[in-house]
Amino acid sequence: MSGGFLQGTKTRSVEDRGRRIAFWIALVGWAQTNTIYGLYAYHNEFTWLHLVRYLFYTVTLGGIAVSAHKNWNFKLIRALGFGALYFHMWGVAFYDAWQGNGSLMSFPPLLFTPIFLVLILGYRALLFFAAAQAAMVYIYARVYVADIYGFDKSVVNTAELGAIFGLASGVSLIILAIVSYAREKTDKRLLKLIQETERLAAEDPLTGLSNRRSFIQRVNGLWNDRVPFTVAFFDLNKFKPLNDEYGHAIGDAVLKAIGQRLQRNPNVIEAARFGGDEFAAIIEEDLQSHDLDERIRCLHAEITAPIEVEFGQVSVGAAMGFARAMIDAKNVSNLLHAADTAMMRCKSSGETIAKFDRAHDQIGLSTNVICEKFRKAIDEGEIKPALQPVVDATTTRVVGYELLARWPDSGLPRDPGPLEFIPIAEKLGLLNQLLWSTMDQALAYLQGSNGFLAINVSPSQLSNSKFLIDLFNIVDAHAFSTSQVELEITEHVAFRNLEENIVVLTKARELGFQIVLDDFGSGYASLSLLERLPLTKIKLDKSLMGNLKEGGVLKAAIDLASTLGFQSCIEGIETEREARFATKQGCDQMQGYWFGHPEIIQLKDPSLRVAS
Questions:
Q1: What is the pLDDT of residues 147-174, one digit of tens each?
Q2: 373 with 410: CB under 8 angstroms?
Q3: Does domain 367-608 have CATH number 3.20.20.450?
């Protein structure tokens, strides 16, 4: 701690207390020195010897006071200063006794004055002064006490008297040293307990990151200092299924690993875990910085990279939203709300990163509001199909599309994203109706092409006995081949009611549908699942691409798919570099924003026709 302890702090350490005591003792001693020698000067009794003593006391006591206040070499100056005062006291006592100026009251203070040292010095220094005190008292008592008190030396044995007084005075300091030692140990234990209590009050016990309260305090501090910074909130994807499947030990290991990555990131000023799989970070940002988006993207990539656990590698996705201090909000409360709102929009839209956008995020949507309008939107065909292209890895020609749902022109403050309205569709029992409506339009659009259409299937749909019949009928009605329709299931869907799902998917395969395992490598699938499910393709999670340098994990996954007779498709391709890397590893197909975003289709617009 630098600076004076008189400036005021909320907490005081044991060292601070010692400095305060030393400071006030030195200050009081300095005041007494000025008073005493001021009286000498007032009565014209101020001699050169008084001047020397006055300068000695002033320099020594002043040095101790300044050192204690500024915490500048305090321990050294304290030891030298009080040691000098102690031996100076004895030097003056011996000199006065030698000059015959000893009085009846000069000896008792010499016995008890050193006791004040226990308030200032540690037990090691007290043990040293105990030996010095015993020797000084013995010599003084043996040589001068008899003359000062008028004892008859033939009757009083001054050697024995000196030994008794010396031993008593030395032992008293030894006892005080023991007391000081015990107090120091107690103080250390108390300080450790206080520090541990404060740490637990400010820290997440699992990851070692800050907790919500401590994080908000740091945000407040940076805001008050007018330091430019960005707050990012992120929520892990697929964490609960991983936790449910492999237990809390693996889940905790993942959370700890993410915490360590946040602590190591050079752009993160402070990171926190708010609870569960929710995290937050403060990202530094200087006024000349124009690469905030890149920093956010790199942080997201680092968080979602594969994590080593006891049985191999796992990875989880993350929805991240961020907002800039003093730009996106006028106070801390609004800033935190802005970052949280951006994250929620990111989750609902299926994106990975979202920057706070005042126009879109100012007004939130409640579940009740969406529920009220969703049923009508389904009936009136307001939910539109959007197609995202899947390309051949070698030629980059479009070979198929993934079917997604969008709700444009909803009439709400902002258009809900799929992660907002699809759970509501499932809750209301409208998930199949949503699929048939969008699929009907998509099949009409793709009429006559030989590309495939991939649809996402939920657990509730697989458990519906009529699902496969209705699916076959709508495909047949459009004269579309069942071999051109891919049913995408996630690892989590496959694990739920596994035996029943295998039966349903086997029937689907017998009808000609293609079966695709989506998000493979996202963390919790058993390899035995690949042999048990009637798969035709594996969609590989982007996390398997690693750092785009070695490609060992991605290559192994592609080779595994090939060995088992499956096609492989890598998801999340966003740059040309990623596309080239994935192609080099030998994957069959690719999908991602580099090749095209999901686009709402218009039946009169043939521009998105699949390449034949």
A1: 777 777 677 787 888 888 888 888 887 8
A2: yes
A3: yes
